[in-house]
Amino acid sequence: MSSEALLTADYVNESHIRAFAEALDTDADFPDHPSKPVDASAPPSPVSSRIRKVSALSDFAPVNLKVKKRKRKDKMHLKASRHDWTFVLFRWPLLGFIFLFIAAQFGFYVFLRQLVNIKEWISAWRGKKGLLRKKLRASQTYEEWKEAALVLDEYLHFDEWKKEDEDPFYDWKLVRKVQHSLKTLREKNDVRACLGVLETCMRSNFAAVESPRLYSETFLGTKDLIESYFEEQEKALEFIRESPDLKIDEKKRFFKAANTNLGITALCLSGGASFGYYHCGVVKALLDEALLPRVITGTSAGGLIAALCCTRKDAELKQLLVPELANRITACEESLGIWIKRIWKTGARFDPILWARKCTFFTRGSMTFKEAYLRTGRILNISVIPADRHSPTRLLNYLTAPDTLIWSALLASAAVPGILPPVVLMQKLRDGSAVPWNWGSRFKDGSLRVDVPIQALHTYFNVTSPVVSQVNPHVHLFFFAPRGSAGKPVAHRKGKGWRGNFILSAAEQWLKHELTKNFKLIRDLELLPQLLGQDWSSVFLQRFDGNVTIWPRTRFWDWVRILSDPDPQELERMIRVGQLVTWPKLRIIANRAKIEKQIYLGRQSVRKSSKPKAAISSVDTTHQRHGNGLRVPTISTTPPPSGSDRPLSVDTDAEHAFTHNHRAFFRNKRLRISPSTSGTSTPNRHTDPLRSPATRRRWASSLLNGDGVSPPSNISTPGSEGFFTRLRTKSHSGTTVKEMPIDPTEDAWSSDTSDDDDLVEMPDDDRGTLVEESVE
């Protein structure tokens, strides 16, 4: 499809919009009663077949008379809001004094930041160094930017720092040992020893090689030792994936463990009204270098861009991230007179029904979270909070809300008090119709509490490296890296020292902590009243950064147009600014992404290699007998109707529980491998001592300590068992064996994340008797 067709496509589903409008008109406390009066002369609605309950205020009042509801004071609310007389007396004076103190600190903070900017401009933007910096900023592509960054590093002698292995910010001795061991073992074609080394070092931020400090000393890249370390890891993973000396089950267990231990990267797009369109440049820079993560989360304006990314494939997304996209951004096109009337009538500036029609372009119609995941393989996450004050934040994705319409989640994520009223989330049924989700509860903007849901992402998808694009206006001014950031070293003293100087950086940190302390005091003492029905005390007290944080540079005019739509020229500028601030971070993102990619390719290779077994196992889903007499269920691995297009799931317990619907299988029980009851020995188990993961880890540890690279000899034989080993073998001789319950209707091919993968699909030479024991 051409770019023009993609930009002009219409995806509005009128039936879903009508269902959404009816859900908004329904009283949240009484879902069977519409909140608006019903006209008796109007024809009955063809959409709803419910019988309306007829009621009147009294025997003499008309049935359909619009009567204002009597406000009954909630006794529990009054009881909870009662305070001591000292609180009532000192609350407002104390709150005013704290705000005056905050205003003075903020003014001094702005003045201090201007002093730092002036000093950095004098140090960095004069002479040849200033010309090279201007050339760097004028780059049009990432290749041009890299060339200019290398020239600047060479002129400032930053390249000399790259060649030195020693540095106090990482364990360079351990990194050098691992890099040398991987290279040596790969050249010797010793796949099992290489596997043992990788099992030891495949960890998130192993030896601190992912520390941002190691990327803040130069404009491009980091230590040459770290670069070669990641390259050797990539080659070793590829070597293991293509090696014929390892069985499929061994590769499967290794890549699963590697994915769990390393974790994955997620892109978090913050809210920020019209500031959020800077995210387009960030996404474009990542997409052009094939570094766009699979897990993407967004809130408010960031959710709009996240939905655009997760509902389109790469080719479509490249055609949409152009300045002409501004023609479809028309959220603020109404006149000021309409806004004033709506605010006076509803208390909100925008109409949710009108916004629902506009959002369908970014969500590709009434697409659900699960449909978007199956189409693109990307996992969309939208953060929302219930309309009531005390309910926790909810992260919507294809696990927690698979059938929820994405455009309704975007509206809820943008429902800031005074901007948009709380809305109802809509759910798509099997017949294609839309109904309210979660009994018609109302939801609003999740950034009021959690703008970057790092903890929830780690829980659901094992995210250990969040990349945050932060454009929130209320925190944008407070970003300050005193020792530089990735790809942006300190402007003076050849990238060393502190920004400005130590005194200015220390004063900046002190003022920032003082401001945070005062906001915490207001929150803990409950001094701030609820404005527009919302507690605003958590807006400044969240975590707004990640392992890698991207802060697009804004202008003063952006603050004036914070609730305005960009034109094509303005969107082109915002895309370019987003690219310029993302390019310095690409190297630190790419070094980790290459490892995640090899693990992903390894899991794909294992899944494709297990396909020939599917033709046999899919015919019979009953039980088969093995040589030892144990009846083991045959699991069907037939691909689903979508074939190989189904995306590869993320290795997490939550996703496995969702896919397989296993809730209480291992409750209070565990499976162990005991010696075979038939009395036959397993010679292969002792022939290769490196088959055991524990032995491989001990072998890798001794290898890194410099004890040599030769594998250990056979450490045990069947005849050299000790007394307690023979005693345990005899004690299990009378143990009964139970079959594992397997649901023949479940789709075992869609995910390979469960622990029973290691138990059911064991190698023939390692397969013993599955004994089920109660955990005491």
From TrEMBL:
List all membrane-crossing ranges.
85-112
Task: Report the residue ranges that make up the Plant heme peroxidase family profile domain in this protein.
Answer: 147-449
Every PNPLA domain range: 267-458
GO biological process, alphabetically ordered: lipid catabolic process; response to oxidative stress; triglyceride metabolic process
Where is the motif named GXSXG mapped on this chain? 298-302
Which InterPro entries does the record cross-reference, listed alphabetically?
Acyl_Trfase/lysoPLipase, Haem_peroxidase, NTE, PNPLA_dom, Triacylglycerol_lipase_N
Task: Give the GO molecular function terms.
Answer: heme binding; peroxidase activity; triacylglycerol lipase activity
The family annotation for this protein states: Belongs to the PLPL family.
Q: What is this protein called?
A: Patatin-domain-containing protein
The species is Mycena albidolilacea
